[in-house]
Amino acid sequence: MRARPTTGAAWIVRLTGALGCLVSGSVAQALSLAADGRSDYRIVTPDGPTAQEQFAAAELRKYLALISGTELMVETEGKATGRKIGVAVAGRLKAAAKVEFAKGEADLDAFAIETSGDDLLLIGSNKRAVIYAVYTLLEKHLGCRWLTFGEHVRPGSGFIEEFVPKRPTIELPELHERHKASLKLRGFIAAAWFGNTPVQMVDWAAKQKLNYFLFQAAGYEEATEWNDLIVKKELLPRGFILSVGHHSFYTFLSPDKYFKDHPEWFALVGGKRTPGGRLHGQFCLSNPEAAKTYCENVLAFITKHPEVDIFALYPNDGYGWCECENCRTGVKWEERPQYEATQDLYLKLINPLVPEVKGRFPGKRLSIAAYVNYTQPPQKERPAPGLDVTYAFFTRNWFTDPIGNADGPVAKGPYAFDIARKHLARWVELTKDGGGNVMMYEYYTGRSAWHGRPYPLMHLIPQELAYHEKTGLAGCAVQAHWNSRKTDHANLYVFAKAAWDTKLDVDATMADYYNQRYGKAAPAMTKYFAQMEENARHLQKYFVRGAEAIARRDKGLTDCAQFLEEAKGLADTDAAKKLITEEHGLFEAYRKFQFAK
Predict the structure, then answer these.
(1) What per-residue string of b and e applies to 10-36 under the rule 16 or more CB within 10 Å gives b?
(2) Domains (ranges, CATH) in the chain?
(3) What letter does residue 310 receive in the DSSP assignment?
(4) Omega before 155 cis (within 30°)?
(5) How many Å apart are CA 76 and CA 59, to the nearest integer?
(6) How would you write 156-204 as a 3-class SS string?
(7) Distance linking the first and last C-alpha atoms of the chain
């Protein structure tokens, strides 16, 4: 899709500042990369380039051709002559020998965009950062935009919604830029099949400098065709951090396989052994044979999947923990005292696996979940050194205020932010000395109560990510599926931008986004999304009480309808008209939901 060019200069200045770029040097000596279909430049990779270096070079060649009509050659350094655009990981290109990175910057996907005489250098601190250097050059300096996932036809064809400007001449000033992410881990919790995670979703995520995907273990193994086409040909060449597991007790200790012969391995709930499954029902973690078999199956899975970086060993979804004498913890869960906190029991199972995996599979990591009644940090056990923790604030059902807002109206109560803040700080404290990462599992694309309707949270998301960075969390991953491109496209765009730079100027970023998507209708759509965010955060039917609040809600809905009608009248392209019509359909579903009994 080709969106309209953005007009005006003020937002460009603001957006450039928001990206946190450090630019210095004279702009008098411009590099002319292309002019009237011709170029003196070669795209140069190291001799024996990695898959990511090859991919970065190919993407640069592709977009320079789309912009200018000029197709540059890609060559290895040993064969290249003349002026060069170097695309490489640090230390792998002779021409970029002076480009170095400080210790720890590779963890933050740091990269450099440097001019060196007549050459341009795009150098990453790690395998994927070189790809981010290419995309940042294209976005920041050449005006490309990648807005949403777009459309697709199974199994992998389609496109992302992008804007690529047309200019016969490409010139760059002298550049000396260094970039790095605010958060180490930035990405999606998705599903391992075409309908939920097609190639365009992966493509868009890489272009937004996201670096992490988490898939459920069962689906990951079952979707063999998807795995061949998406994991091997799309995720890995882009250098993504691949995490597999999620709710998976039932995967590694299958009730179908073991319950008949070993019912004592499974949870005693209400006086009866229950097999459990993906939803509800854990196994008896205190049973030594059950724990041994579980661990053996986990190690077999790790052996089978060397492409995976992090093995997320989470319990089954929901509750259903064993109530036998050896599994009872006697510790009340702070948020819902009718349940016992089970984190100590859980850690006793996983901790012994950490040194085992470290010794047998160097570079691989294990992750546990802090979710429902095991969000609460342990009282006696401590995470093994190097064990990662993913925290999911499941009892938080609304997004009225950012989690870091200690003075908000829902700061205390049954969904208490003060408890979550205390828990997060404690998890960071427990893991930091051992080198473990704590990351947030978020629901910015919806919860069960949202019923698949749009809930814009564009101004809340960067505030929360900044709080997580300040608290010491390594990152954040968001539940996201294919349909999120329609219901929560603005949330996903802001999440990606803010996960890279938590100091994001939201208004400038969204002004650019609306201009690209909606053209002349952007002012009306800006008003629509602003009111929809107010609706989503403060005017939900679940907590609107009293005549005044109901009147505010009804006026907000009326205003949104009027803004959409105004936008339809202003839209001057078929693409913008289609997008506004789709948004109107989503809004009508949201409005119907608000008034449903």
Answers:
(1) ebeeebeebbbbeeeeeeeeebebbee
(2) 21-179 (3.30.379.10), 514-595 (no CATH)
(3) E
(4) yes
(5) 16
(6) CEEEEEEECCCCCEEEECCCEEEECCCCCEEEEECCCCCCCCCHHHHHH
(7) 40
Maximum distance among all Cα pairs of the chain, rounded to whole angstroms: 80
Rounded (10°) CA dihedral 145, 147, 151, 152: 70
d(CA 219, CA 481): 14
pTM over 0.90: yes
pLDDT tens digit sequence for 523-550: 999 999 999 999 999 998 887 889 999 9
CA distance 511 to 313: 41
Q: For tokens 């992008």, name the residue.
A: 162
Token code pair at residue 286:
């205190």
SS3 labels along 219-269:
HHHHCHHHHHHHHHHHHHHHCCEEEEECECHHHHCCHHHHCCCCHHHECEE
Cα separations (Å) of 192 from 136, 155, 215, 228, 230?
Answer: 28, 13, 6, 11, 9
Rounded Cα distance, 440 and 159, in Å: 30
Reported as type and span, the H/E element at residue 119 is: strand 119-124
DSSP secondary structure string for all residues of 313-376: -BPPBS-----STTT----B-SS-TTSB--HHHHHHHHTTHHHHHHHHSTT-EEEEEE-GGG-S
CA 556 to CA 528: how far, in whole Å? 10
Tokens encoding 441: 């599992």
Task: Tell me which of 23-32, 122-131, 509-518, 586-595 is least confident.
Answer: 23-32
70 three-class SS = coil
Whose structure tokens read 């005292």?
337
Is the Cα dihedral 332, 291, 423, 541 positive or negative?
Answer: negative
The pair of structure tokens assigned to 29 is 């000596």
The answer for residues whose C-beta is within 8 angstroms of residue 516's C-beta and 6 or more apart is 3, 4, 6, 145, 147, 163
How many other CB atoms are found less than 10 A from the CB of residue 289?
Answer: 12
Q: Which two structure tokens, joined as six digits, stand for 576? A: 């913008």
At 316 the pLDDT is 96
CA atoms within 13 A on the CB side of 356: 13
Are residues 71 and 65 in contact, defined by beta-carbon separation less than 8 angstroms?
A: yes
Amino acid found at 365? R
Q: Tokens 């965010």 map to which residue?
A: 533
H-helix or E-strand spanning residue 68: helix 51-68
Q: Provide the token pair at 443.
A: 């629901």
Which residues are registered as beta bridge partners of 391? Answer: 370, 440
Quote the pLDDT of residue 408: 61
Rounded distance between C-alpha atoms, residue 217 and residue 326, angstroms: 28
